[in-house]
C-alpha cells in the first residue's frame, strides 16, 4: 500500500507482536470513571421499594417469633441482592463489549495487510492509515501523506491544521515506534482529533492514558447511553403505583387494626403484602432485558445498537431516507458496456469479448495504475483479466516512462510507456467523455454523435469513461498531455449493481407502510436507473440539489409528498430534507457515511451509519451502525424493532393483568373481614414466577405473521397506553372476581380450615398466572391455539412452575412455611373448576374484543 509518494511502506507490526503489546500494555482505552463499585450497587438495591418491604416483613416475622418465615424472607433478600448484582455486572460487561464494538474503528497495517480493528485494540508501533472523516485512535507521528486535522478538542481553534509529512526514506520507517517524536521532526497527531481532508499514514507513539487527551482526563470515545423513553415512562409509572400502593396500604392497616381488631404486627404484614402486590417491580427489569437482548440479537445480524432510543423508535419509522452507493448498490464497480464508433458490447459475464473491443480494453488497462485503488480502475483490471485471453498481458514489454495526472483543467489521466525495441512512446489516456473527445479532435459530426452516445449511456445509469491512445516520437515529452495526438477508441460504461436482496426489502417496506426515499449525491440519471431497477419508484419524477436550493420550505415540503428520488444532493441539503419531513409528521430514519452527514444523522429520529465505509464521525452521531452497509439489514432492523416492541407490549399487559388479582386477594379479605389469603412470602414466590416469565418467555416469542404488513405505530405510543393497560386490567378483574367468589364459597363451608382455603386459592392463582402467560403471549389467536403454538421454552416454563407448585403444596416443611395444608382430591377439583372458569372468561373476553374491533 502506498500513501503519498516515496518508498513502499513496511509491513507494520506482526499479529503476534501486536497481541503481545495489547496484553502487556493494555487496551487503547481511557479509565471508565462511571464504573460503579459493589457498595454503590448495594446502595441502589437497598433503595428499591421491594427490598425495603422484604426487610420490613422479615423483621415483623422475627418479632412475631415466626423464625422460619423470617428466614425465608431473609433468604429472598439475599437472592434479590445476588440477582441484582449479577445482572448489573453482566449488563456492565455487555455495555463494555458494545462500546468496544461501537468505538471508532482503526485501519492499521499488520503483517503487510491493511486490517480494520476496534480502536481499543490499537497498540504502540502500529501503522495507522487515515482518510477523510476518520477520528484518530491514538497519538502518533505522520510518516506519509498530507492531511488537515480538526484539533479544536485540544486547542479550541476551529480552523483545521495542515499536517504534511516530510520526505522519508524507506530505511527510516520501521515497525518499531518512534522513541521521541519531537526529535524526529515529524508532525504530531493526537487521539480523538478528526481528519477533515487528505490521506496519511501515522505511526502510533502513545495509547490510552498516555495520549494528550488521556493526560487531561477526557474520553470522547466512551459513549454514555441516556435513559430511553420507555425507561423514563416505566420509572414514572412504577413510582406512581408505589405512591398509590402506600396510600391503599395505609388504609388497609388502619382498617385491619382498628376495625377488624387484628394485632398491630399482623396488620402491618397485611399492609406490606398489599404494597408488594401493587409494586410492578418487574417493569424496569423487563425493559432492560428486552432491549439488551434485542440489541444482542441485532448485533448477531450485523446491526450494532449505539442508542436504545433508536431501538425503540424502529417500529415507528414512516420514512427511510437512504443513500444509493453501498446501501442500495454493492459499492463495487463493474464494466457493463463497451462502445466504439461502430459497435457496442454489453457484458453479461458469459459472452466472449469480440476482437474489435480488445484494443479499447487494453488501452483502458494501460491508462490505469498497475495496483489500482479507484473502483472503476479495479473494474477495468478485473474485466481485462477475465475477457482478454491473450498470452501477452497489456503491459508486457512496456515500461512506464511518465504520467500526467488528472487536473481541474484536464479531466483525464495519461500514462506514457516506452518499448524496449522501439524509440516510440505509447500514450494511453482515459477520462471524462467530453475531455477525451476534445483531446482527439474528432470531426464535428463524429464528435456530436459520440457525445450523444455518451449521454445515452449515462442516461441508462452508467458511469462513462472515454479512452484514447496516441504515440510520441520525440525524445522529450511535452509538459501538457493536450499536446499529444490522440486516436479515439471508445467509451467504457460502469455500473454499481444493486444488491440482490434490495428489491425484496423495498417491497417489504412498502407492505409495512414505510416509504423509501433515495437521497444521493450521484447523477440524476444514475439515481433514476437504479431506482427503477430495484422497484423504489415507478414515478420518473426526481429532484436535484440545485432545485432544492431554489425552493422555499413550503414548496419543497409539497414536492417531497410525491418525490422518491433526490440526486446531486449536498450533505446540508439532506439535513434540510430530513427536518422538513419531520415537520410534516414523519418519523425519519436516515443513513449516512460522511463527516458532513453527521448533522442529518443526529437530526433524524434514527440515524443509521455505515460500518464498512462510514467515517467515525458519522458512526458516533448515529443510533445504529450497519456492519455490512446493506439496505436489507435496515429492513431487518425495522422487523426486529417491531418484534421487540410487540413483545414488550405483551409483557407489560401480562404484568398488569397478574397484579390485579394479587392486589385483590391482598386487599378485599381485609375489607370483608375474611382470613388473610396472601402473606408477603406468597407474593415473593409470585414475583419469582412473574419476572422469569416476562423476561424469558415473552422476549423469546417469534415475530407475528403480520409484523411487516401493518402500518407503523405512532411515535408517542407506549406499552403503557390506556388501551393496553385497560385490556390487562379487565382480564385481571375477571380473574379476581372468580378467585374472590371461590374464596367466599370456600369460607362458607364450615368443614374447611383456613389453610385448606388458602392452598386452593393459591393453586388457582398460580394456574391463572400460567393462563395469562399463554394468553398474552398469543394475543391474536384463541387460547387453545395459543397453547398449541407455544415454544419449547414456554412449555418448559409451565412444567417447571407446575412442579414448583406441587412441591410447595405437598412437602410438609413447605406447607408449614407457606401456611398451607396438603391438598386433597376435593381441593384439586375445586381449583380445577376455578381454572376452567378463568379460561372460559379469558376466551370469552377475547372474542368480545375481536367482535368490537371488527
TrEMBL record:
InterPro entries: ATPase_P-typ_cation-transptr_C, ATPase_P-typ_cation-transptr_N, ATPase_P-typ_cyto_dom_N, ATPase_P-typ_P_site, ATPase_P-typ_TM_dom_sf, ATPase_P-typ_transduc_dom_A_sf, ATPase_P-type_domA, Cation_transp_ATPase_P-type. GO terms for molecular function: ATP binding; ATP hydrolysis activity; metal ion binding; P-type monovalent copper transporter activity; P-type sodium:potassium-exchanging transporter activity. Residues 5-66 form the Cation-transporting P-type ATPase N-terminal domain. It is an enzyme of class 7 (translocase). Keywords: ATP-binding, Copper, Copper transport, Ion transport, Membrane, Metal-binding, Nucleotide-binding, Translocase, Transmembrane, Transmembrane helix, Transport. Its EC number is 7.2.2.8. The keyword Ion transport applies. The chain crosses the membrane at residues 38-64, 70-86, 237-259, 271-296, 650-672, 678-700, 721-746, 758-774, 794-813, 825-842. GO terms for biological process: intracellular potassium ion homeostasis; intracellular sodium ion homeostasis; potassium ion import across plasma membrane; proton transmembrane transport; sodium ion export across plasma membrane. One of its GO terms (cellular component) is plasma membrane. It is a multi-pass membrane protein. Belongs to the cation transport ATPase (P-type) (TC 3.A.3) family. Type IIA subfamily. This is P-type Cu(+) transporter. It comes from Eoetvoesiella caeni.
Amino acid at each position: 500500500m502506498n500513501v503519498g509518494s516515496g518508498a513502499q511502506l513496511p509491513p507494520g507490526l506482526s499479529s503476534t507482536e501486536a497481541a503481545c503489546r495489547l496484553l502487556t500494555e493494555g487496551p487503547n482505552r481511557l479509565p471508565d470513571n462511571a464504573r460503579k463499585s459493589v457498595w454503590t450497587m448495594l446502595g441502589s438495591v437497598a433503595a428499591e421499594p421491594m427490598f425495603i418491604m422484604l426487610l420490613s416483613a422479615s423483621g415483623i416475622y422475627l418479632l412475631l417469633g415466626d423464625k422460619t418465615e423470617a428466614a425465608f424472607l431473609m433468604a429472598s433478600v439475599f437472592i434479590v441482592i445476588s440477582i441484582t448484582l449479577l445482572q448489573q455486572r453482566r449488563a456492565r460487561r455487555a455495555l463494555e463489549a458494545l462500546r468496544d464494538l461501537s468505538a471508532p474503528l482503526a485501519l492499521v497495517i499488520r503483517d503487510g495487510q491493511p486490517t480494520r480493528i476496534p480502536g481499543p485494540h490499537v497498540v504502540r508501533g502500529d501503522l495507522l492509515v487515515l482518510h477523510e472523516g476518520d477520528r484518530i485512535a491514538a497519538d502518533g507521528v505522520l510518516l506519509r501523506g498530507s492531511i488537515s486535522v480538526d484539533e479544536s478538542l485540544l486547542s479550541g481553534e476551529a480552523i483545521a491544521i495542515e499536517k504534511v509529512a516530510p520526505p522519508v526514506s524507506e530505511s527510516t520507517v520501521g515497525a518499531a515506534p518512534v522513541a521521541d517524536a519531537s526529535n524526529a521532526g515529524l508532525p504530531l497527531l493526537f487521539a480523538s482529533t478528526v481528519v477533515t481532508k487528505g490521506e496519511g499514514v501515522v505511526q502510533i507513539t502513545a495509547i490510552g492514558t498516555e495520549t494528550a487527551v488521556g493526560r487531561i482526563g477526557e474520553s470522547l470515545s466512551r459513549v454514555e447511553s441516556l435513559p430511553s423513553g420507555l425507561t423514563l415512562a416505566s420509572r414514572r409509572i412504577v413510582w406512581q403505583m408505589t405512591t398509590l400502593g402506600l396510600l391503599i396500604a395505609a388504609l388497609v392497616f388502619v382498617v385491619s387494626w382498628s376495625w377488624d381488631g387484628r394485632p398491630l404486627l399482623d396488620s402491618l404484614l397485611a399492609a406490606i403484602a398489599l404494597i408488594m402486590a401493587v409494586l410492578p417491580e418487574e417493569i424496569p427489569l423487563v425493559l432492560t432485558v428486552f432491549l439488551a437482548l434485542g440489541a444482542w440479537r441485532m448485533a448477531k445480524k450485523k446491526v450494532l445498537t449505539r442508542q436504545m432510543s433508536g431501538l425503540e423508535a424502529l417500529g415507528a419509522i414512516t420514512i427511510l431516507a437512504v443513500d444509493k452507493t453501498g446501501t442500495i448498490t454493492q459499492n463495487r464497480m463493474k464494466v457493463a458496456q463497451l462502445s466504439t464508433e461502430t459497435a457496442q458490447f454489453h457484458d453479461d459475464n458469459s459472452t466472449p469479448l469480440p476482437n474489435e473491443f480488445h484494443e479499447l480494453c487494453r488501452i483502458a488497462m494501460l491508462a490505469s495504475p498497475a495496483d489500482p485503488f479507484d473502483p472503476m480502475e479495479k473494474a477495468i483490471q478485473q474485466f481485462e483479466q477475465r475477457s482478454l485471453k491473450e498470452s501477452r498481458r497489456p503491459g508486457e514489454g512496456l515500461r512506464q516512462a511518465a504520467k500526467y495526472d488528472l487536473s481541474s483543467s484536464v479531466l483525464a489521466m495519461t500514462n506514457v510507456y516506452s518499448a524496449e525495441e522501439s524509440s516510440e512512446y505509447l500514450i494511453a489516456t482515459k477520462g471524462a467523455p467530453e475531455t477525451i473527445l476534445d483531446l482527439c479532435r474528432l470531426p464535428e459530426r463524429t464528435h456530436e454523435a459520440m457525445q450523444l452516445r455518451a449521454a445515452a449511456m449515462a442516461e441508462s445509469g452508467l458511469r462513462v469513461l472515454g479512452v484514447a491512445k496516441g504515440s510520441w516520437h520525440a525524445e522529450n515529452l511535452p509538459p501538457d498531455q493536450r499536446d499529444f495526438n490522440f486516436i479515439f477508441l471508445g467509451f467504457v460504461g460502469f455500473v454499481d449493481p444493486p444488491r440482490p436482496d434490495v428489491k425484496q426489502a423495498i417491497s417489504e417496506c412498502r407492505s409495512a407502510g414505510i416509504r423509501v426515499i433515495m437521497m444521493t449525491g450521484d447523477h440524476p440519471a444514475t439515481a433514476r436507473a437504479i431506482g427503477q431497477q430495484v422497484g423504489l419508484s415507478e414515478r420518473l419524477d426526481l429532484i436535484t440539489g440545485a432545485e432544492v436550493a431554489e425552493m422555499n420550505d413550503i414548496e419543497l415540503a409539497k414536492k417531497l409528498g410525491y418525490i422518491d428520488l433526490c440526486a446531486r444532493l449536498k450533505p446540508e441539503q439532506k439535513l434540510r430534507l430530513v427536518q422538513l419531513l419531520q415537520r410534516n409528521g414523519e418519523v425519519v430514519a436516515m443513513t449516512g457515511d460522511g463527516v458532513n452527514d453527521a448533522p442529518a444523522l443526529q437530526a433524524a429520529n434514527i440515524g443509521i451509519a455505515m460500518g464498512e465505509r462510514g467515517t467515525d464521525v458519522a458512526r458516533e452521531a448515529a443510533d445504529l451502525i450497519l456492519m455490512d452497509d446493506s439496505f436489507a439489514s435496515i429492513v431487518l432492523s425495522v422487523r426486529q424493532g417491531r418484534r421487540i416492541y410487540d413483545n414488550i407490549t405483551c409483557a407489560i399487559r401480562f404484568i398488569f393483568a397478574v397484579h390485579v388479582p394479587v392486589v385483590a386477594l391482598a386487599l378485599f379479605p381485609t375489607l370483608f373481614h375474611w382470613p388473610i389469603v396472601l402473606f408477603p412470602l406468597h407474593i415473593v414466590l409470585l414475583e419469582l414466577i412473574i419476572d422469569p416469565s416476562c423476561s424469558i418467555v415473552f422476549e423469546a416469542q417469534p415475530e407475528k405473521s403480520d409484523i411487516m404488513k401493518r402500518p407503523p405505530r405512532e411515535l408517542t405510543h407506549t406499552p403503557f397506553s390506556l388501551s393496553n393497560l385497560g385490556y390487562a386490567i379487565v382480564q385481571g378483574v375477571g380473574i379476581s372476581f372468580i378467585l374472590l367468589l371461590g374464596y367466599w364459597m370456600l369460607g362458607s363451608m364450615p368443614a374447611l380450615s383456613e389453610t385448606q382455603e388458602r392452598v386452593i386459592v393459591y393453586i388457582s392463582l398460580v394456574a391463572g398466572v400460567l393462563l395469562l402467560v399463554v394468553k398474552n403471549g398469543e394475543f391474536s389467536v384463541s387460547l387453545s391455539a395459543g397453547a398449541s403454538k407455544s415454544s419449547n421454552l414456554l412449555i418448559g416454563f409451565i412444567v417447571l412452575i407446575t412442579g414448583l407448585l406441587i412441591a410447595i403444596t405437598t412437602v410438609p416443611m413447605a406447607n408449614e412455611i407457606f401456611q398451607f395444608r396438603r391438598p386433597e382430591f376435593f381441593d384439586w377439583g375445586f381449583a380445577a373448576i376455578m381454572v376452567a372458569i378463568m379460561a372460559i372468561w379469558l376466551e370469552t373476553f377475547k372474542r368480545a374484543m375481536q367482535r368490537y374491533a371488527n
